[in-house]
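Regression test case RT-17, inverse folding.

Input:
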């Protein structure tokens, strides 16, 4: 197979990867909701950012509210994963709470999606 045909095959295969498409939509939605909030975000813009169409977005997520919920769950999961790395079990309760509160504050200051919460 020529390199042109091989790259075409890879491109069309990547576009047919449902999980990759779902992740692209989630990433695009995260950016759009973070910039504009639930009310200001537009499904058309999210689909365009993801290199998808609105029909695909609705297939994976149902509607805009459900997509927003999926983005919140993604963001929540990321902060919880980061918190687990703190190893708070070895600290006193007061030290553990201080470390957790400081971490949470810093996390939301630097998180790209802090405005959706």
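Golden output:
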């Amino acid at each position: 197979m020529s390199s042109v045909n091989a790259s075409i095959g890879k491109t069309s295969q990547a576009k047919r990867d449902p999980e990759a498409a779902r992740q692209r939509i989630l990433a695009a939605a995260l950016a759009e909701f973070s910039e504009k909030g639930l009310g200001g975000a537009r499904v058309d813009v999210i689909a365009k950012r993801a290199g998808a169409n609105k029909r695909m977005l609705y297939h994976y997520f149902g509607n805009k509210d459900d997509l927003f919920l999926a983005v919140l769950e993604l963001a929540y999961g990321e902060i919880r994963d980061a918190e687990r790395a703190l190893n708070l079990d070895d600290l006193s309760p007061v030290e553990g709470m201080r470390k957790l509160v400081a971490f949470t504050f810093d996390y939301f200051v630097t998180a790209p999606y802090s405005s959706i919460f």
